[in-house]
């Protein structure tokens, strides 16, 4: 079907990033509501994508019973192409941009954002840095895909990694993401917990290869090669089974716009320790679901990690509360419903 398309959703990054994950989560649900097309690179469990030029061709025709199609974009180059479609090619579209950045955008992104028909901010702080905010909508998590394990030790055993229980950090390996802080914390924690294995899940970009090699060298010097494991990138399809096998998730970035991994952990019944950035403080529910520490405060992070891993009753209680919060407050269904309200508002004008 080449016409009558309500919604175009763009994904211009071939790597599976946090933005990719949130885009996929939303689009999976949106395909049940709208005649939609993914534009750019593939996303797991989403429709096969079309190219930009094909999307432009489809967008020449207005959707039935609606005055225009909506292009929902999340990156600078995606904004650029949507602006070209609307303002240069004159296609009947309106552009919605989701902004998660909790800092001032640079000059070019500010100009691009100023051209959006409406902006969805993920937090109040993110909203303070962009114009024309139509709604503040926190990202949600797929609580059908990310689910708790009934038997944590058995779930860990099935992963094939050594030890009896696991702890992990998930994301790009680079300084901004605080991968070094996780490694340093594990070098302090692991000698006292012989049954614990730590996973560093993610890959390093070309410019961060030396950063990764330095981390591996540090682990080697500490004699922990078999207990701090650099897994590389794990596919989106396999990640839920890894999450539900963990005893604790750790996220210690120096900066984060929003941060999905603690939320995916919560949906999996896994509490977290995180630095005070992104939306982590809100996720923590005043410490009921996780502990938030000052950025780069390694000692506080280690103390909180030890608390969760040595007090099983405390960890178990936080696990239950985490799943309840993810299901009730941060489900993807809630996010999709609120985004639909933004679309309806545009279509009704």
Could you walk me through the main structural features you see in this protein, from its secondary elements to its overall organization?
The strands form two sheets. A six-stranded parallel sheet has the order 2-1-3-4-5-6, with helices on both faces. A six-stranded parallel sheet has the order 9-8-7-10-11-12, with helices on both faces. The chain has two domains: 7-140 and 331-348, 3-Layer(aba) Sandwich (Rossmann fold); 152-328, Glycogen Phosphorylase B (Rossmann fold, 3-Layer(aba) Sandwich). By secondary structure, it is an alpha/beta fold. It has helices at residues 18-30, 52-58, 76-88, 107-114, 124-127, 152-159, 179-189, 209-221, 239-243, 261-267, 280-284, 298-310, 312-328, 332-348; strands spanning 7-11, 36-40, 69-73, 93-99, 118-121, 133-136, 165-170, 196-201, 228-232, 246-251, 272-275, 290-293. The mean pLDDT is 96. It contains 14 helices and twelve strands.
